[in-house]
Amino acid sequence: MIVAFSVAPSGGPSPEGDPGGVSAAVADAVLVVRSSGLPHRTDSMFTTIEGEWEECMDVVRRACEAVGRHGPRVSLVLKADIRPGRSGEMSGKLERLEAAVERAQGEAGRGQ
Known about the structure:
The chain has a single domain (about 1-85), classed as Alpha-Beta Plaits (2-Layer Sandwich), CATH 3.30.70. The chain has a four-stranded antiparallel sheet with strand order 2-3-1-4. The protein is an alpha+beta fold. A hairpin with a 4-residue loop joins strand 2 (about 40) and strand 3. The model has no long low-confidence stretch (mean pLDDT about 90). It has helices at about 20-35, 55-70, 90-110; strands at about 1-10, 40, 45-50, 75-80. About 45% of the residues lie in helices and about 20% in strands. It contains three helices and four strands. The protein is elongated, with a radius of gyration of 18 Å. About 20% of the residues are buried.
């Protein structure tokens, strides 16, 4: 499966009075992802991981726990592509998309 998620602190400073910050909290979550060993990609909006259900959900849970240390509340947005028996889809989907774009550009060029 592929899971794209965004996690951030919400609701002010932690109970210990550490104001933290969104960047520091997200950095802690990204460290969880990077140490997971799963294929991953982080961009300005989401972190995407690929693996089995249990692996992915464990990483998301641990990333939320890491962010939770920065404040009393955590916001999580998650989207999943559940496709049993498939792997390498983080790059495979992009390769198929790029091939389709090239075909469309070629067809548009012939039609002008």
